[in-house]
Write a structure and sequence with these properties.
By secondary structure, this protein is an alpha/beta fold. The chain has one domain: Rossmann fold (3-Layer(aba) Sandwich). The protein is 42% helix and 15% strand. Strands 3-2-1-4-5-6-7-8 form an 8-stranded mixed sheet, sandwiched between helices.
Length: 249
C-alpha cells in the first residue's frame, strides 16, 4: 500500500511497534508516535533499518498541545492521514491487593487509566479527523480487548469470568473505548472514514507483565489490527473484531 500515511500511537514498543513494522512492510509511511523521545527515535530507527518509511513524532496522548503539534507535523509533511491506530494504553492496577480486586481500586487509578485509554483516544481522533477526512479511504482502528466485553463479564460461565483477572480500571476503560468506537462510527457513517475496535491476541507485552501466550511477531499478534487498517471499501465500520472474528460487545 504505497502512498498511504499512517499514525500509530504508543509505537515505541509492544503492539504499537509491531503494528508499525507490519504497516511499514506494506509500503505505508508510518508516523511512530511515542511519549518517550529516546524510545520513539530508537523505534523509528529500527523500523527504518528493516526497510520501513518510519518517522518518529513526539506524541503524548494525554496532552492536547502534544497531539496538535503531532497533527501539524503530519499535515506539513503529507497533508493528510489515511490510517490512525489508537494503540497507546495503560493498565496500572498490577499491585498485589489491587490486581483482581475491583473494590480496592482507588479513583485516582481509574482516572489515570481513563486519561490514556479513553480521553487520549478521543483527543487524538478529534484533532486528527480533519486530516483523515482528506483521505480517499481513511481507517481508524482503536486497539481494544475482549477484557472490555460487557457480554463476557455478564456471563458467569464465560472463560473471561472464570479465568481472567478482574481489572476494573483497564476493563471498564476498554468498554468505554468500545462505546467511543460506536459513536464515532455512527457520526462518520456515509463518509470515507471507518472506525472499528480491534482485539488482538493475548500478546506478551509490558502491559500484561509479559504473561501473554503470543509473542510479538507471531502471526496472530497484531493481524486483526492490520486487517482493519487495510480494509477495502467493503470493510466493516462500527465493529468489534478479534483475530477469531466478531467479538461480543
Amino acid at each position: 500500500m504505497p502512498d498511504r500515511i499512517a499514525l500509530v500511537t504508543g509505537a515505541g514498543k509492544g503492539l504499537g511497534w509491531e503494528t508499525s513494522r507490519r504497516l511499514g512492510a506494506l509500503g505505508m509511511t508510518v508516523f511512530a508516535g511515542a511519549r518517550d523521545p529516546q524510545r520513539g527515535r530508537e523505534a523509528a530507527e529500527t523500523l527504518r533499518a528493516g526497510g520501513a518509511d518510519a518517522r518518529f513524532v513526539p506524541l503524548d496522548v494525554t496532552s492536547e498541545r502534544s497531539v496538535r503539534q503531532a497533527r501539524d507535523v503530519i499535515d506539513a509533511s503529507c497533508g493528510r492521514l489515511d490510517v490512525l491506530v489508537n494503540n497507546a494504553g495503560v493498565s496500572p492496577e498490577q499491585e498485589p491487593g489491587i490486581r483482581g480486586v475491583p473494590t480496592a481500586v482507588p479513583a485516582g487509578l481509574l482516572r489515570q487509566t481513563y486519561e490514556v485509554n479513553v480521553f487520549g483516544v478521543a483527543t487524538v481522533t478529534r484533532l486528527m479527523l480533519p486530516l483523515l477526512l482528506r483521505s480517499a479511504a481513511a481507517r481508524i482502528v482503536n486497539v481494544s480487548t475482549t477484557m472490555g466485553s460487557l457480554t463476557a463479564w455478564a456471563d458467569p460461565d464465560s472463560p473471561q469470568r472464570r479465568y481472567a483477572p478482574m481489572l476494573l480500571a483497564y476493563d471498564s476503560s476498554k468498554a468505554a473505548l468500545n462505546a467511543l468506537t460506536l459513536h464515532h462510527a455512527a457520526q462518520l457513517a456515509g463518509t470515507t472514514v471507518t472506525v472499528n475496535s480491534a482485539s488482538p491476541g493475548y500478546v506478551a507485552t509490558d502491559l500484561n507483565g509479559h504473561r501473554g501466550t503470543l509473542q510479538l511477531g507471531d502471526e496472530g499478534s497484531v493481524s486483526v489490527i492490520v486487517r482493519l487498517a487495510t480494509a477495502g471499501a467493503d470493510g466493516p465500520t462500527g465493529a468489534f473484531v478479534s483475530d477469531d472474528g466478531p467479538a461480543a460487545w
